[in-house]
Amino acid sequence: MAEEPLVLTLDAGGTTFVFSAIRDGREVGGPLELPSLGHDLEACLAQIRRGFEWVHERTGREASAISFAFPGPADYPNGIIGDLGNLPGFRGGVALGPMLEKHFGLPVFINNDADLFALGEAFHGRLPEVNGELEAAGSPFRHRNLIGLTLGTGFGAGIVIGGRLLRGDNSSGGSIWLLRSRRHTDRFAEEGVSIRGLRHAYAEAAGIAFAEAPEPKVLADSARGGDAGAREAFRLFGEAAGDAIAQAVTLVDGLVVIGGGLSGAADLFLPALMAELNGTLAKREGGCVPRLESRAFNLEDAAEAAAFLDPQRPSKRAGVCVTKIGTARATALGAWRVAMDALSGN
User: Fold this and answer.
1) Which of 79, 17, 25 is nearest to 7 (CA)?
2) Residues 6 or more apart whose Cβ sits within 8 Å of residue 259
3) 28, 48, 209, 343: which is deepest, by most CB within 10 A?
4) Cα dist. 122→127, 131, 325 in Å?
5) Class of 126-324 per CATH?
């Protein structure tokens, strides 16, 4: 039986690029991490070529395609990258896809990082795992849709419905970052659901300037050590994320999988996030209605997970969990699937 095609992949973050090669759903080359150098366009493009060359050379130059994640806004079908906040060197429309096709002589597929993360989790991560656990428990319920969230420098979402990625007519499907902020209604959600949002929340709670606010890892350590300001920052972060996710779940009705650099601090923000999902909205004439038609369950909590899996539970349910295979790996697997579908004509 012939081997499936080899695909070169990249997970492009605001600070780090992670290159690898995937064949048959398995990583066979890499990973290689390089700083993004995103403030300097030419240096950044050179890093991208260097990373792909490194992986290409170490896998025998056998690749059939390049498929990778890159932040938007972008014209993804044509590989044109727009003005990026996280990689500010990109301005005015950069033809990244055509440049790489010319350099490597391979077809190039570029997609949003959160979209590919969601695809990876839908086919190789938490979705099949959770459905397997439901089956083993004897529950007839299955999740068929998934919202994949990337929490880090920015706030991204990818949506997979019945195994198909929701791209949208303008490659803008799943743009959760542009939902209205719950706490500051003149701002967008990413202002609170991001590293900068977390640091701003801490600066306000601690009464210090934003420039003095520590990075997330330090804040997480402080919060776990009992720092009230840090704990409040993560609570506000979780509340803001929960509000945006509730709006997404209302429309999509699926499993929620959290990834990104801040997912490692999920224990600090998940309580507030879950409280928002399972909260209420007021009625004009008094009283309230549940925020969601479904009950949201924190699958990172043993008791909550057991209740979610209970085959006797008749009510609607939505699982919320954190990636187990890791954001970079899920994204790479999503990129591999996109390339496989394109090369096979699907």
Assistant:
1) 25
2) 117, 121, 148, 149, 150, 151, 322, 323, 326, 327, 330
3) 48
4) 5, 11, 12
5) alpha beta
Residue ranges with strand state E in 14-96 = 16-23, 26-35, 63-69, 74-75, 80-81, 94-95
Where does 5-164 have alpha helices with state H? 41-58, 96-104, 113-124, 126-137
Over 70: is that where the pLDDT of 43 sits? yes
**pTM assigned to the model:** 0.90
Question: What is the maximum alpha-carbon separation in the chain?
Answer: 69
The tens digit of pLDDT for each residue in 242-272 reads 999 999 999 999 999 999 999 999 999 999 9
Q: Would you list the domain boundaries of the chain?
A: 6-112, 126-324
> Regarding beta strands 63-69 and 6-12, do their DSSP bridges make them parallel or antiparallel, or are they unpaired?
parallel
CB 71, CB 115: distance < 8 Å:
no
Ordered strands of the 145-151 beta sheet:
164-165, 155-161, 145-151, 255-259, 317-322, 295-298
| CATH superfamily label, 6-112 | ATPase, nucleotide binding domain (3.30.420.40)
Residue 340 has phi, psi (to 5 degrees) of -60, -45
Asked if 96 and 80 count as a contact pair (C-beta separation under 8 A), the reply is yes
